[in-house]
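Progress report, Aim 2. The chain analyzed during this reporting quarter is listed below.
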Amino acid sequence: MPIAEAMRLAAGQLAELLQCDPGSVSSVKPTDEGWTADVEVVEVERIPETTSVMGSYRVQLDTRGNLLGYERTRRYARGQIDQRK
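Predicted structure tokens for the chain:
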């Protein structure tokens, strides 16, 4: 399966399960079982948008693009910038 399709499937299936809009896919990697993707979703919409609550989820897909599992790895405000050390 092409990486672009894995990316779309990961975002779409997670959004359907969580009933949240996908914001972006920040990483996609092939694994022995299929694919792993990190998907950012809007969990709570607020005004202004920079205060919306985002969730970062790690999604596992099999080689056919079926969802095997997911877990939230981070929750943050949309306008928050990671601090690099």
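Residues 3-18 form the longest helix (16 residues). The chain has a mean pLDDT of 90. These observations will guide the mutagenesis work planned for the next reporting period.
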